[in-house]
Design brief:
single chain; mainly alpha; Helix Hairpins; minor pseudopilin epsh fold; 2 domains; three-stranded antiparallel β-sheet; 3 strands; globular; binds manganese (III) ion
Length: about 200
């Protein structure tokens, strides 16, 4: 069975950038529902229920066709939100240093360019989805955006940071102003966590 991870901080910890009520609804209802729907869809398939979530969503061809779309959407939702909570911190923001900071300079020129490109990707994603910085097969940092709960993980790639641009992530505080939410979100990005994920990706 898949389980809902605890938030690594309090609901109000990311205020004023992400408000308490949004965080609570997002974690306790939206993410919890993805986990419940995923477990329901895989009921009776103990081999699939015992996989880790990344392995499961990289192997959707092994999931019975009748529930494959449900598993894609809810499994993706579980994976994405699990990463998203880790990807933020009340001590976040600023710019990454170390390996990741150097890689950003090499692959984007500077941090400002990365920030601008990821923000654009999030702003331009039509409807619901995510924008990502991920490591490609040549170990380069790239930017993409995905619809619904799709993720670079489904292509066997490693996301380093991701921003949820579904309306449920921001509507209470920012209404239709997605770009204001994205701007605010940069203040809570957990670069320490991102740096650890990047170092692991280089070793894979
Ligand atoms: Mn969400």
């Amino acid at each position: 069975m898949f389980t809902l991870p605890d938030l690594p901080y309090e609901f109000k910890a990311l205020d004023p950038y992400l408000d308490e009520r949004t965080m609570q609804l997002h974690h306790d209802f939206h993410h919890a529902t993805y986990v419940k729907n995923l477990n329901d869809a895989l009921s009776g398939h103990n081999d699939l229920l015992s996989m880790d979530i990344s392995t499961l969503i990289q192997n959707l061809d092994k999931v019975p066709e009748a529930v494959r779309t449900k598993v894609r959407n809810n499994g993706g939702g579980h994976a994405n939100h699990s990463l998203f909570w880790q990807n933020m911190s009340p001590n976040g923001g600023g710019e990454p240093s170390g390996n990741l900071g150097e890689a950003i300079q090499n692959d984007f020129g500077d941090f400002k360019s990365l920030k601008q490109q990821l923000s654009e990707a999030g702003k331009n994603r039509f409807g619901s989805g995510w924008a990502w910085v991920y490591v490609d097969n040549d170990k380069k940092l790239k930017i993409s955006d995905t619809p619904n709960q799709d993720t670079p993980v489904m292509e066997g790639l490693t996301p380093i940071i991701g921003i949820d641009v579904w309306e449920h992530a921001y509507y209470l505080k920012y209404q239709n102003r997605r770009i204001d939410y994205i701007e605010a979100w940069w203040n809570v990005v957990n670069w320490e966590d991102a740096g650890i994920r990047y170092s692991k990706a280089l070793q894979e």
